[in-house]
Amino acid sequence: xxxxxxxxxxxxxxxxxxxxxxxxxxxxxxxxxxxxxxxxxxxxxxxxxxxxxxxxxxxxxxxxxxxxxxxxxxxxxxxxxxxxxxxxxxxxxxxxxxxxxxxxxxx
Length: 107
Hints:
Blueprint: E1 6-12, E2 18-23, H1 26-35, E3 50-57, H2 60-71, H3 75-82, H4 86-93
Antiparallel strand pairs: 1-2, 1-3
Helix pairs in contact: 3-4
């Protein structure tokens, strides 16, 4: 039985912006980004793109969850993930909101 894999990926565009996506064929998808298949896509006017991160999943739901999660991340946090800088990633993951229980002062 042939296993199907799903990939969450991040590409760096020619303008240095980052694009996060999900596919079941990473090689094909990167070609689509670089050939400019869809002129309405984010990467169309930002070609060429280069792959800086990929994560493989066996279940679509897990891949979709992870893609949605990192799409909300800051550029700095995405780059820390791509650079495997897990110390920085941990620091960036800590909640700094004043309303967070760890950040409330004792009253």
